Amino acid sequence: MGWVLGAFALGYALFQVPAGSLGDKYGVRKVMTSIMVLWSIFTSFTGLAWNYVSMLCFRFIFGASEAGAFPNISRAAFSWVPTKERGIFQGINFSGSRLGAAFALPLVAYLIDAWGWRNIFYFFGAIGILGAFLFYTFFRNRPERHNGVSDAEKEYIVKNRQQEVEKKGGNLPIKTILGSKNVILAMIQYVSSNFIFFFMLTWLFPYIKDKYELTLVAAGWYAMLPLLAGALGNWVSGYTVDAIYKKGKWKLSRQLPATIGFILVVIGILSSLFMDTPLGAVLCLSVAIFGADMSLSPSWSFCMDIGEENSGKVSGVMNMAGNLGAFSTSLAFPYLVKWTGSTEPFFYIAAGLGFVAIICWSFMNPDKKVN
């Protein structure tokens, strides 16, 4: 099961940079719509899997298809979002993914009983196709090309967004990106964030179900709590990033929310080890996910700061590293339990990665551009 879960994360990680660079080069509207259609198709194909190998293949391609979503949103934000509003934009953006996952957990538990597990994937695939149609209909790559935006708002956005230095989107070599100290530090800290978050998306549900002998639906309700906390963490962080930035403290606006977030990650993870009830353990892990998601808005805003018109590719590099961390999570949890007979080593590793992320953020500087 760890490999089934990890196949998605691996495909998602490996195709971050190519998909992000496509948005820089061809425009977010076309690329993002294509991504949504592809991930919806392979969501549905998961329901067609007939054995272990076919499930691995469908999950890998599903992850690869979805890979460019967040890098392309980041590239769109470079054109659409004033610099002083990046924090709350990214907070709202990532909170959507958390809320979707949170409400899906108990919903799917009910629907599996009613429809069977295969039909769930067809249902979500259909929703994705509808979402792709709506996105293509209403989105435009730049506010200047959107008839639904007033002239006053267009003028405000253009005046306050980060300015492109020159037209070279998609041409920044990967070698140059990976040669940036800022990018390397961003990649390392994002591994730390994704390592614990992906546990919440994958192993938390069976972990609390088995450990506390819960029913399928009860486990679903418990498992949604950390994701709701993650959504709240995104909002709090997004607001904090912008509030500090408006005071003229650009570097601090990225460093402080992320650092506080990773401190909460360490506290929440270690505290969960001392809880004897499912509610106590889940509440502590909710603190950890609240903290982990506090790092998202500053992380992606940071990539836009240093990547500018190449922010799709730069954020793709960071997200690639982060999702290699997610791939590690899917395998580390079951293998560590098998080797040690305990779940505690996994959580100690996650807490240790939180300490590493705090150190990384102390050296990250949004003033130092990649190019």
UniProtKB/TrEMBL annotation:
Domain Major facilitator superfamily (MFS) profile: 1-369
Localization in the cell: Membrane
InterPro entries found in the cross-reference section: MFS (IPR011701), MFS_dom (IPR020846), MFS_Na/Anion_cotransporter (IPR050382), MFS_trans_sf (IPR036259)
Transmembrane region(s): 33-53, 96-114, 120-139, 183-208, 214-236, 256-274, 280-302, 314-333, 345-364
UniProt keyword Methyltransferase, yes or no: no
Membrane topology, from the record: Multi-pass membrane protein
Record keywords: Membrane, Transmembrane, Transmembrane helix
Protein name per UniProt: MFS transporter
CDD domains: MFS_ExuT_GudP_like
UniProt keyword Manganese present: no
Major subcellular site: membrane
